[in-house]
Automatic annotation (TrEMBL):
Gene3D superfamilies: Vaccinia Virus protein VP39 (3.40.50.150)
Protein name (database record): tRNA (Guanine(26)-N2)-dimethyltransferase-like protein
Pfam families to which the protein is assigned, alphabetical: TRM
InterPro entries: SAM-dependent_MTases_sf, Trm1
Keywords: Methyltransferase, RNA-binding, S-adenosyl-L-methionine, Transferase, tRNA processing, tRNA-binding
Amino acid sequence: MLLSLAFSPHFPQTQCCNFVPGNGFQVERGLEFDTGGAFYRRESATGRDLGVLAASLQKKVNGSLRVLDALCGCGIRSARYLKEAEADFVAANDGNECYGKTIVDNLSRVCVKEEKKWVVTHLEANRVMTDYYVEKSFFDFIDIDSFGSDSSFLRSAINTLKYGGLLYVTSTDGFSSGGHRPHQETKVADVPSMALCVRSPTSSISKCSM
């Protein structure tokens, strides 16, 4: 897995035949949820752990945590950000409307909709990020969990970050945009699972392979 740190300019599904969608209820880090037929990979829990850790540290630094989960699938990442990172608000988006009830049910296990701590949308990822950007509704933390290359999402995501925000990117079957191949990789079948972490704003980049 590759972990990279960098900064942004913002101031104040295709399913591989080697993968099988999750089925029914699962438990991850003590949180029960329904996959609802969405793709779910247990082995990627470590990547989700790192996302929760990064989001928790982001809240500790900033005092608040507003999260956008742009490709949320069944919503397990969003639910964990609410429960474990204690996010103040999570926007959970997935382009597949068929997952709508599953996402709502999973988030409702953490906090009821009436608390207004989360919202569910079904737009293309770049569209939802661009809409928030146009509305000047920026985020402390954006999670991009793509199946394949993440490169098409990076511009929209970085634009939608708050000043000092954090972008967390994972990629199941492609190399995340970290600049080079890592020396060590977490393999899924014959393809790597990777992560990229970007903070705004600066031009410096530090990298480490895990």
